[in-house]
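Example 3.2
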Amino acid sequence: MPWPSGGWCAGARPKLPKAVLLLSGGLDSATVAAVARDRGYSLAAISFEYGQRHLGELEAAKRVAAAQGIARHHVARIDLRAFGGSALTDDIDVPKGRDDEEIGDGIPITYVPARNTIFLAHALALAEVEGANDIFIGVNALDYSGYPDCRPEYIEAFQRMANLATKAGVEGESPLTIHAPLQNLTKAGIVELGTRLGVDYAETLSCYDPPGGPGDFTHCGECDACRLRRKGFQEAGIPDPTVYRA
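Structure, written as tokens:
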């Protein structure tokens, strides 16, 4: 069968669309990586060393990137401890043992001021350099801890801003799109999706206050992130590979 007129030469492959992935190394971002790859994107990932107490997530991000075949994995270093104001970047205790009602009530002290805005701004700059028209982020508006920068209206607003504020947005033929494919999924739905796409969740770290050092993916089992993670596997009816201390 001949190649289509004007098509590839023998042995050539179609050029994949480029996208930038925000990769924390947690359950959600690992799932989004698999979703983006399944949709046919060539990915550049960006992770952040921002003074977080759960610094081990960077090792998890490295492993997720390798598992998903992401060759271009950038780590941006910004010190949000300079501002503090969060249990993740300041000398403030991480809340433990909260029930579902408490987790869903208000904005918790683990919220890092303007974190997703800062992260998306860096991803936007990388997208321009990479020539990518798409950014993937693992925010979720159902089973989450009340963060204002995880809501659909926030993502929509940032996308509008991005297309006003960049050369690619103003002059480019294709506008930039921010994809939040987990936006309306429960944590159980996310676990089901990732499992279907072959994500190894044993190589991810969600815990806000992990008891081990980098490379030890033991979870405390008591912070909001651990409780939501455990609940997701339980409700999905899928074996949880996570090691919890409690």
